[in-house]
Amino acid sequence: MKASINVFIYCGLFFMAMGVVYGFVTHFNELVGFPALLLVGVMSIMIGVYLWLTDRRVGRQPQDNDVAEISDADADYGFFSPWSWWPIVCAAAGAVSFYGIAMGWWIFPFGAVLGVVALVGISYEHDRGGFAH
């Protein structure tokens, strides 16, 4: 985590410095790049500070240990259903919804209804069938 903290802090300082240089080069006439670079720098520093505070609270991480094994950083990523078709239906609902926003609002309700069906299906897929508890 120490390397990540340094990367975000140094990138933030770099972007803020480049934002100021960009402002002077364009004589502050182009008011998109200058604030954008400053904000990218500020956000990068915010992430670095968050990681630093988390590192202080959590303590030494396996990635900071030079002799750590890969299994030391093993985490529980949750439970995922084998052979579930509902994530594909959720993706299709998102695709139809965003297509409706881009091409015509009359398509959006079809994606929204499909999204509700997909969310109900993925939420209750373990209540019936072969995976019921």
From TrEMBL:
Its EC number is 7.1.1.9. The keyword Membrane applies. Pfam families: Cyt_c_ox_IV. GO terms for biological process: electron transport chain. It comes from the Bacteria. The keyword Flavoprotein does not apply. It is an enzyme of class 7 (translocase). It is found in: Cell membrane. The chain crosses the membrane at residues 7-25, 31-53, 83-101, 107-124. Keywords: Cell membrane, Membrane, Translocase, Transmembrane, Transmembrane helix. One of its GO terms (molecular function) is cytochrome-c oxidase activity. It catalyses: 4 Fe(II)-[cytochrome c] + O2 + 8 H(+)(in) = 4 Fe(III)-[cytochrome c] + 2 H2O + 4 H(+)(out). Its main location: membrane. It is a multi-pass membrane protein. Associates with subunits I, II and III to form cytochrome c oxidase. Belongs to the cytochrome c oxidase bacterial subunit CtaF family. Part of cytochrome c oxidase, its function is unknown. This is Cytochrome c oxidase polypeptide 4. The lineage of its organism: Bacteria, Bacillati, Actinomycetota, Actinomycetes, Micrococcales.
